[in-house]
Specification:
This protein is mostly beta strands and 351 residues long. It has one domain. 13% of the residues lie in helices and 35% in strands. It is built from five helices and 13 strands. Strands 10-7-8-9-11-12-1-2-3-4-5-6-13 form a 13-stranded mixed β-sheet, with helices on both faces. Helix 2 runs antiparallel to helix 3. It is globular. The termini are far apart.
Length: 351
């Protein structure tokens, strides 16, 4: 019986991506990718500090802000802290691209816009940091992680378990009362989640039809007593989704940045025991679509968050922090593009 040929891998995808942290002012509007690339190309220099290729990994940071509110300073220590933390982290993870996975190790580098180049095919991925002239190719099904220095024309091959990772920054000491003091003080509060989505309408970006959505996920505690504290936090996500599925990748095992433990130490329970309620309104945001524009911003208390310049989208708001992703130059990949995921000819292997 003749052998049955294996099915050809599905089409892959390549695109360029601008990532930046927005700390104040008005972010670029949706649909401005080519102008932003041109501006970035004229301002960046070859002397820019290289940054590690981004990785997908757990976020952990935004949710801890909310956990601190519920737990009175002992992050995720309150009964509701973990719930709040997970809810806010999920909102962030569903919206942020892979480029902010290593944010904890390279936060300052992303204060300046970075041009990234992504390619996905056959479950493999290639991530190129254009200014730093470095690229990382991951073929996790084959147990290979290839790091390439495009400027020096060298490469190194690692296994997923031996790939060098960014070094985590030193963590500041926790502020507030000790866990023992918190455990000794019971408390109550009313904790409320609100998840509101507004449609922003259609917009053509990079030749692709997209649909826009503005989702605000907020958390607040009121009527606090004892070790509970009143406060609020929110995440706003403005995104324009194309009718394209995000690329499929054979993911390598997730490892934390160097300097962080493989597993977290369970926090000491706090005496704060909030009562929860949750409210959702607006249309459901379609799942499984590639965002060509994504602005994720967060704030605490009455702090404002940024938004894209109108039109379309909400008005700009000052004194905030946001994570902006713009994608463009989309291209379909096939077997003829397999060379993108190999070692360039003439490059030298280094230990």
């Amino acid at each position: 019986m003749p052998g049955v040929p294996s099915a050809a891998p599905p089409p892959g995808l390549a695109y360029d991506e601008i990532v930046r942290i927005v700390t104040s002012g008005t972010p670029p509007p949706p649909g401005n990718f080519q102008a932003d690339v041109a501006a970035l190309t004229t301002t960046q220099t070859a002397a820019a500090t290289p940054t590690p290729a981004p990785r997908k990994r757990g976020f952990g940071g935004i949710g801890s802000i909310v956990g601190a509110i519920a737990g009175g300073g002992n992050v995720a220590g309150a009964a509701g802290g973990a719930v709040a933390s997970n809810a806010m982290d999920n909102a962030a993870q569903n919206s942020l691209g892979a480029q902010f996975g290593a944010m904890g190790a390279g936060f300052a580098n992303f204060l300046q816009p970075h041009l990234m180049r992504y390619a996905f095919w056959n479950g493999w991925e290639r991530v190129e940091e254009v200014t730093a002239q470095t690229a990382t190719i991951r073929k996790c099904d084959l147990g290979q992680v290839i790091q390439i220095n495009l400027a020096a024309k060298t490469y190194t091959i690692y296994t997923p378990s031996t790939e060098p990772l960014p070094t985590a920054p030193a963590m500041a000491p926790a502020r507030g009362r000790s866990p023992a003091a918190q455990s000794a003080q019971p408390g109550t509060a009313v904790a409320t989640f609100n998840d509101t989505t507004k449609p922003l309408g259609p917009l053509k970006i990079e030749g692709e039809p997209t649909s826009g959505y503005d989702t605000t996920t907020s958390f607040s505690t009121t009527q606090a007593t004892g070790s509970c504290h009143n406060g609020s936090a929110s995440i706003e996500t403005v995104q324009y989704l194309a009718p394209l599925a995000p690329p499929t990748v054979n993911s390598c095992p997730v490892r934390p940045p160097e300097g962080l433990p493989e597993t977290a130490t369970p926090p000491t329970p706090s005496g704060c025991k909030p009562t929860f309620s949750m409210h959702r309104s607006g249309p459901a945001v379609p799942a499984g679509r590639l965002a060509l524009y994504s602005l994720v911003s967060f704030g605490m208390g009455s702090g404002a968050t940024p938004a894209p310049a109108p039109p379309p989208g909400p008005s700009a708001r000052p004194s905030s922090m946001g994570f902006l992703t713009e994608r463009g130059n989309l291209k379909t990949l096939g077997p003829a593009d397999e060379g993108l995921f190999g070692i360039p000819q003439g490059f030298t292997k280094t230990p």
